[in-house]
Write a structure and sequence with these properties.
It contains two helices and five strands. By secondary structure, it is α+β, with helices and mostly antiparallel strands. The protein is elongated.
Length: 106
């Protein structure tokens, strides 16, 4: 949907800033050039891939309550280590750290 484009563009810009470019010497990244530190990219996943986010806290769910919902990865939270997921069933963008990814399913 069109309302997701700003979120996706933020993610693309973050990925571009944390990957090497020919415009900078020695294969450095724009992030490294600006901060002097190497970026951590271990949390990057394939945008648009299937993500099963734990959207209900363990304290709030019962034995038969749904634990996770199928969503799509649309970006990364700026102020925490959370992922931004789009839950198409509820037409909602959610942030969570508890995610299982299936990068083969786009």
């Amino acid at each position: 949907p069109k309302f997701l484009w700003p979120e996706i563009m933020r993610a693309v810009v973050e990925i571009k800033n944390k990957t090497p470019t020919r415009a900078l010497p020695d294969g450095r990244t724009p992030y490294e050039y600006w901060t002097g530190r190497k970026p951590n990219i271990s949390h990057f996943r394939r945008l648009g891939c299937a993500a099963y986010g734990m959207l209900t806290a363990p304290q709030k769910r019962g034995k038969l309550t749904v634990k996770a919902r199928r969503c799509q990865l649309i970006g990364y939270a700026k102020d925490s280590k959370a992922y931004k997921l789009y839950d198409a069933g509820r037409h909602k963008v959610v942030r969570t750290r508890n995610v299982v990814f299936n990068e083969a399913d786009v």
